[in-house]
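Try this one yourself first.
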């Protein structure tokens, strides 16, 4: 299964990423997980390929967290993603700042799961700040 999170709101995008990884850890006491940033390591997709191709000895599923997945546009990387779109025991979670370029457009269509995190402004931003402040026990006084 491929889960694609994208958009300029890195705070909410990273919260969703942490929630997905926490849900995996809750189900699997022993985690088989790799975390790679392809912007920092352009060849990191090769590590992900090796990770996904090796059978896991202790758990039935694996998680690959890939930040800036569209930074590597090699055909092999795209084929790895396409090959894992419908694999129920493998989770590839991609987190990118921007919408995917054309070769990665398949990430926006089923069977991939995607969620956009647009920058908030106006009333949605105020509601978000109020909700986050309340969750942390912080109160703002009206001016």
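Now uncover the answer:
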């Amino acid at each position: 299964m491929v889960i694609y999170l994208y958009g300029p709101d890195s705070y909410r995008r990273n919260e969703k990423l942490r929630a997905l990884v926490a849900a995996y850890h809750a189900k699997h006491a022993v985690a088989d997980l790799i975390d790679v940033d392809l912007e920092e390591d352009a060849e990191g997709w090769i590590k992900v390929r090796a990770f996904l191709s090796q059978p896991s000895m202790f758990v039935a599923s694996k998680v690959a967290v890939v930040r800036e997945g569209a930074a590597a546009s090699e055909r092999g990387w795209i084929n790895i993603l396409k090959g894992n779109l419908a694999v129920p025991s493998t989770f590839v979670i991609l987190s990118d700042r921007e919408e995917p370029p054309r070769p990665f457009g398949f990430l926006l269509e089923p069977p991939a799961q995607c969620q956009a995190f647009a920058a908030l402004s106006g009333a949605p931003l105020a509601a978000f700040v109020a909700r986050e402040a309340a969750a942390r026990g912080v109160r703002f006084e009206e001016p």
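Discussion: The mean pLDDT is 90. The longest strand covers residues 90-96.
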